[in-house]
């Protein structure tokens, strides 16, 4: 009996409340539609916005959990300035939605949840799968550039990519499926230069690039060209969310080096193959939803001891 009480104490002591779908149903019923409206309006103005929102959620979740830490401006130590977050954008959309939410239901909706909702809507607006997003995250108390040192990097080996996902409680399947997010969005030539011209000792391209694709990439990103020029990460598959990215990766048409690495490992390769078999084909869309919900739970803070509801997303409350 005594042991039982101790065990229960431990369980309730460390386990936090869980996220749930519709967390704001009573406290701020329009929360999700307000965020969706801001994403939609911004996307009408700039078609890159959905990609920004999706990437932002990933980068938020991978440093200290999905807690809005990436949104904070706290000077030179701001997490968002980390090299691993290079090119992450869309902060203004989150901030604008937050301002409206503070007007409608002050002090209720966390910035971390706004990011998660915006990512969900980004997928939907790109004609990807529609899913219910869990909410109830609190915003974290820490932003520190050095905490982003372990972000997955485009030069990482498949071994290291897997490890970085395992460290967040995510599997190699999550790695493959979430990499599929690259079905929308673009990359700067910056991330390709070494892959095209300096991949092997003495110079030369990554041999894993399909020879039918290499000349095209070299033309888009020439050696002395503009490293800020952007190209779609998912070759020839438009801005819509689809499994074209996995097809491209399988056939050597990956644009990003880290995407190509999924072929370097028997397990990730087999998962990739499972979406293209002639029998019992897995559904990328369904699996993507599962993995997004899982990623959205990484390191979340749900107690007011560990997090707060920020009034402004780029600033801690006093
Ligand atoms: C597996 C490790 C990953 C690596 C190494 C990686 C790396 C990159 C790189 C280098 C870019 C180009 C950035 C730029 O040029 O501005 C990019 C873009 C992007 N990533 Fe990832 N990524 C990874 C996983 C993910 C995940 C899990 C998601 C979301 C679930 C995601 C969503 C995106 C999106 C949407 C873009 C396009 C952004 C835009 O158009 O501005 N990535 N990623
Ligand atoms: C940031 O994090 C690093 C590593 O954990 C730590 O050494 C440093 O003191 C932190 N900086 C601030 C200002 O909290
Ligand atoms: C395909 O799925 C069906 C039903 O889920 C199952 O009975 C069958 O054994 C599976 N076939 C293979 C090759 O996995």
Automatic annotation (TrEMBL):
Signal sequence segment: 1-17
Residues binding substrate: 152
Q: Which Gene Ontology molecular function entries are recorded, alphabetically? A: heme binding; lactoperoxidase activity; metal ion binding
Where does this protein hold heme b?
182
Question: Which sites bind Ca(2+) 1?
Answer: 60, 63, 65, 67, 69, 79
Q: What are the alphabetically sorted keywords of the record?
A: Calcium, Disulfide bond, Heme, Hydrogen peroxide, Iron, Metal-binding, Oxidoreductase, Peroxidase, Secreted, Signal
Which sequence ranges are marked TM in the entry?
none
Which residue numbers mark the site Transition state stabilizer?
Answer: 55
Q: Where in the cell is it found?
A: Secreted
What EC class is this?
A: oxidoreductase
| Stated family | Belongs to the peroxidase family. Classical plant (class III) peroxidase subfamily. Belongs to the peroxidase family. Ascorbate peroxidase subfamily.
Q: Which residues form the Plant heme peroxidase family profile domain?
A: 18-317
Q: Which GO terms describe its biological process?
A: hydrogen peroxide catabolic process; response to oxidative stress
GO cellular component labels: extracellular region
Per the entry, the cofactor note is: Binds 1 heme b (iron(II)-protoporphyrin IX) group per subunit.
The catalysed reaction is: 2 a phenolic donor + H2O2 = 2 a phenolic radical donor + 2 H2O
Top-rank lineage group of the source organism:
Eukaryota
Entry's Pfam families? peroxidase (PF00141)
Where are the catalytic residues?
59 (proton acceptor)
Q: What is this protein called?
A: Peroxidase
Q: Could you say which residues bind Ca(2+) 2 here?
A: 183, 234, 242
